[in-house]
Amino acid sequence: MRWRNTMSENDTDRTAQIRALNDRLRRETSGGRILITPGVTALGPEQVARIWETVAKFETFTEDNDPHGEHDFGAFEIDGKSFMWKIDYYDSNLEFGSEDPADPNKTTRVLTILRSEEY
């Protein structure tokens, strides 16, 4: 029996749309909300700026950290400290998960930047 890829063209388009919206939020700070945890904020404005720049330029996506191809998670180190960022999809009231993360009219994206030990 041969394995067949069951992902349809529609699924591929949907994933590409989610990825583009996530990249836009991460790179341009547009299309969602950004949260920086107290552990990151406590490092001071210069370090926060370095961390933010690393998140915005992050391109080290692999099958392990991005299995769905949505560019919704990343991990990195700066000066021996471990950091993570993640994007979650909520409804417009931030009460429940989004019914369709590919539709920006139905989704509020939240990008959270945190120290790994805060997870």
Rg from alpha-carbon coordinates: 16 Å
Largest sheet: 4 strands, mixed
Q: Give the DSSP E fraction (strand runs of 2 or more residues).
A: 15-25%
List low-confidence stretches: 1-6
Number of domains: 1
Distance between the termini: 42 Å
H/E series = HEHHEEE
Specify the helix fraction band: 25-40%
Number of strands: 4
Given the helix and strand composition, which structural class is it?
A: alpha+beta
The rough form would be described as: globular
Total helical elements: 3
Mean pLDDT: 93
Q: Major sheet: order of its strands?
A: 1-4-3-2
Explain this structure.
This protein is of the alpha+beta class. The chain has three helices and four strands; from the N terminus they run H-E-H-H-E-E-E. It has helices spanning 9-28, 38-41, 45-57; strands spanning 32-36, 73-78, 81-90, 108-115. A four-stranded mixed sheet has the order 1-4-3-2.
Task: Label this structure with key terms.
single chain; 119 residues; alpha+beta; four-stranded mixed β-sheet; 3 helices; 4 strands; 24% strand; disordered N terminus
Give a brief rundown of this model.
The chain is an alpha+beta fold and 119 residues long.
List the helices and strands and how they pair.
Elements: H1 9-28, E1 32-36, H2 38-41, H3 45-57, E2 73-78, E3 81-90, E4 108-115
Parallel strand pairs: 1-4
Antiparallel strand pairs: 2-3, 3-4
